[in-house]
Amino acid sequence: MTTPPKETALEQRAAEGAKMYSPSAARNRDNIRDVFVQTMPQEGEILEVGGGTGEHAVHLAAALPQVRWFTGDPDETARASIAAWIADAKLGNLHGPHAIDVTAENWDASLAAAYEGVVSINMIHIAPFTAAEGLFTGAGRLLRPGGKLFLYGPFSRMGVHTAPSNDAFDRSLKSRNPDWGVRDLENDIVPLARKNFLTLDQAVEMPANNFSVIFRKN
Q: What's the CATH superfamily of 14-217?
């Protein structure tokens, strides 16, 4: 296994052929899985956007064999990694990679409104806010009534960072790209949910000052 010299996303990732290994995914995948299994649908179809290396998709699809999991990423290198993880995992319920980009206008137009879940892990803080807007617009249309949208990552609450480290992380993100940043759950994200017929169901505190946030389709 070798490590590429360039930074991918916000971390150095080891690679073995096309397959990439995310240190952050290795640290948090069990915690995310545990909350996901407790809060999300146990069967039906789930769409993951911004799938990154593909490690979370494999971990979650393995934990929920009755779910048909569709994952992908707009980045070509990420899709190659996802394809490699899918091939090695040999899970009959894991499909992809798609190339969905939630910042694209009407990205969801070709998809049927038939999903029990939509998932985005560690995406909206390292993307322009149009990604969050597009994600919620699509989820509002694609989810069945009672279906759920699952987000994971850092959030501020009511305009206040939950830890000094998140404040520093937010400033670091904005120094890299002024369109990035830690989003505020109540002020930035909940209004998007309401606009798209979604209601905040749970906000679960996670290690390292992150949250798993679950919205339900009305």
A: Vaccinia Virus protein VP39 (3.40.50.150)
